[in-house]
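Appendix B. One record, verbatim.
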Amino acid sequence: MITKLNGTVAELQDQSITLMVAGIGFTIAVPQVTLFAPGSEADLHIYMHWSAEQGPSLFGFKTNAEKTLFLTLIDCQGIGPKMAIALLGKLGAQAILEAVSQNNLKALSSVSGVGPKKAEQLLLFLRDKVSGLLEKGLEFGGSNLTHWHEVSAVLTKLNYSRTEIAQVMQHLTTQFAGKPVGVDELLRHALGYMTQAR
């Protein structure tokens, strides 16, 4: 099993790179080809997928956290490696986790091949998984991610519906996107919004 490769980037394709390792060229699908340059060195965490029709395919990630999220995505029914790599390429690991924490169907369904139904399926599947990833201490960037998830978890415990939580998360996103804000303030605004909505 190949788990890591270190080598020199020989060329770039649309969704993959050719990595030269000890004179052997490996074609590796990556989330964002633009992060690589021909002639540069790359150290990648590798996932090898086996298909009966096409044989082995390699998927490469710059961080172990990104690979872990990829493996979590492909555990979801109906999400294969190509769709998972497309999600990571279009949104990035941080934005995927934010979309899940904020119940943001629109963000997930913006990826080609992920319609509203599949986006909702992803949200349901990943909601508990995100908590596990954060508890493991995986760092995807962005200090507010845990806060968003905590607010969603509190609202769930207070028996608000998924639709209500999605609405309040959308409201909070509009109000606080990109701003450093604590979980207490987010929760206060969330509960205030719920009180007005009811």
